[in-house]
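Please produce the structure of this protein holding sodium ion.
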Amino acid sequence: MGFKVGLLGLGTVGTGVGKILQSPEGRHPLLQAVELARVGVRSLDKPRDLELPSHTLTTDLAAIVSDPDVDIVIEVIGGLEPARTLILDAIAHGKHVVTANKAVIARFGDEIFTAANQAGVYVMLEAAVAGGIPVIQPLKESLGANRIHAMMGILNGTTNYILTKMQSGGDFDDILAEAQALGYAEADPTADVDGFDAGDKIAILTSLAFGGRVKLDQVHREGIRQVSAADIAYAQKLGFVIKLLAIAKLPPNNNNNQVEVRVHPTLVPEEHPLASVNDAFNAILIEADPLGQVMFFGPGAGAGPTASAVVSDTINIVALLKTGLTAANPDSETIHPLLACSHNSYFDVAPMADLVTRFYARIRTQDHPGVIGRLGTCFGDHEVSLESLVQTDVNDNLAEIAVVTHLVREGDFRQALNEIKSLEAVDSIPSVLRVL
Ligand SMILES: NC(=O)C1=CN([C@@H]2O[C@H](COP(=O)(O)OP(=O)(O)OC[C@H]3O[C@@H](n4cnc5c(N)ncnc54)[C@H](OP(=O)(O)O)[C@@H]3O)[C@@H](O)[C@H]2O)C=CC1
Ligand SMILES: N[C@@H](CC=O)C(=O)O
Ligand code: NA
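Below is the modeled complex.
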């Protein structure tokens, strides 16, 4: 018995998916039952890196999601619309859906999964977070015995590629262009560079790990634009590397229903396992009880790795279809609880001012005696104690002082910085970054 796939999108990921579907030999035997029946694109004239029968390709994506012959719709066009509408239409027509689209799931997951559960179909999203790394299915299935209380990861391949190459002195724009050419970046790479993509991904992981959603506008998000070559050099001197981290924590005895969810560039100690995750690789460190720490590592972007996750999700659906275990089947009473998503309650995200973390700051001051003492007084007045301090001469008049603090409440640290900014001897504070 064969199952027909309607593939929406034949770009980086869609082409990778097509290549796997066209060569099932040596992979899971269920793939032999999958037929790539229809493919939807924007332009019929573009040269394609995949041979398809001429009738397969169309620009009428609405016809694919309503085609009675199509069993599974794979959405890899990206963006919010028409992706959201096509996914909902596919569900309304009783199709199972596989998507790599974290932007849509992070914003419309509630609507999409409610519709899917009502229709008795599955929406699978392994590729949406950390590309080829299995993390969505482990959270849904293999870690189910645990209480998960923290997750921390590098969830964006493009920015990790840029930060890695910047360590050897490359230029930001040139490196971004390389990441685009390698197929890592989003259609609009500001989603990568400004942390939106990592924010979408940590929001998705939060709902799966902690059992409640978060509103995206509450997720604190900073990208990597403010990370300069000077910061990377100071970080190296101080024993750190800079990574764009996505972090989510569920406080113990969470009486006020608040979680910590944030994305920002972070100084990571060189000996930390996330410090050696380079290029477009991703990693997610999960703290779970009773398991302890578990880290998932692998390729987070690119055609092959992402297609690996998309096609593996497709195989999961084929397995259900083959065994008749879908809710749309009258003999099956319920949707498979380990493959579906059903979190409709919301957490609040804790304010950043209450976060307790370490900080790095680079401060430009007049090169006068007594300046360090004045900085120390401002920090001390706000309960900020310093772990290390490096001073470098910029020129005859200006010095640059890089400090790393001990743990401090973010609100207190910001107040100290405001006072420091107003000191006559202080020229500017070019950067402030959190430290793991
Ligand atoms: N690239 C990666 O490494 C990863 C990507 N993802 C996600 O996968 C999805 C796809 O990414 P990617 O393959 O890189 O994107 P691409 O831009 O390479 O491909 C998009 C494809 O969708 C088609 N398309 C886009 N909009 C429309 C539309 N309105 N109507 C019809 N066809 C349309 C394009 O058609 P045409 O070819 O005619 O222009 C193209 O074939 C995104 O959601 C992305 O976030 C997830 C993990 C990793
Ligand atoms: N643009 C994304 C692609 C995968 O999700 C990234 O760079 O990680
Ligand atoms: Na994944």
